Amino acid sequence: MERRETYATTGTRMVVRFFGGWDFEAGDANNRMPAAIGYAKGVPMGGDLKAAPKGKAPTFLVAALKDPIGANLDRYQIVKGWMDAKGHLHEKVYDVVWAGDRKPDPKTGKLPPVGDTVDVANATWTNTIGAPELIAVWKDPDFDPAQRAFYYVRVLEIPTPRWTTHDAVRNKLALLDDVPATIQERAWTSPIWYTP
To answer: Terminus of the chain with fewer CB atoms < 10 Å: N or C?
Structure first.
């Protein structure tokens, strides 16, 4: 906690790793010890990246493992934030790695939904979609070495029944009209800060 190297979830017990540096390569995602590479080549979530080496953009090693008794993973996103010259805060969400063979829409860049296996009537789901593990290396395509920025992670699971759905099924009650029957549990990390 003192190092800010922490993350939170909506209740799921997934494991999330997030490292930033200047020298991560695609092959680093093939190593079965991402933390060892992460600490050797960069800083963990909650860390600080100082002035960029000339001609380099930050690279990030990201990894997530599903909750052993929970839902598979949908996608791993990096959220980048920065302040413009007028003092306005901006954020941009990048889909970094995802389950399945989905492709981002060429016009919008948005990734299609992972799908939905929830059986609302029985408050169950299956892990026939999604992935048990997501790992990749990502490089900021919009990096400005003169601009302060922060990067944090959001990891989403596939849809599962919401707790209100479980309660309704267990107690033989009607579902609530104003509450969705499903939810995508998620995790968020502490940011990695870039300071020129």
So the answer is: N
Buried b (16+ CB within 10 A) or exposed e, 9-32: beebebebbbbbbeebeeebbeee
- The residue behind tokens 């800060």 is 193
Mean pLDDT of 59-72: 97
pLDDT for 115 equals 97
For 164, phi then psi, to 5°, come to -65, -30
pLDDT in tens, 83-126: 988 999 999 999 999 999 999 999 998 999 999 999 999 999 99
CA proximity to 34, closest of 139, 132, 133, 135: 135
Among 23, 90, 12, 88, residue whose Cα is nearest residue 52? 23
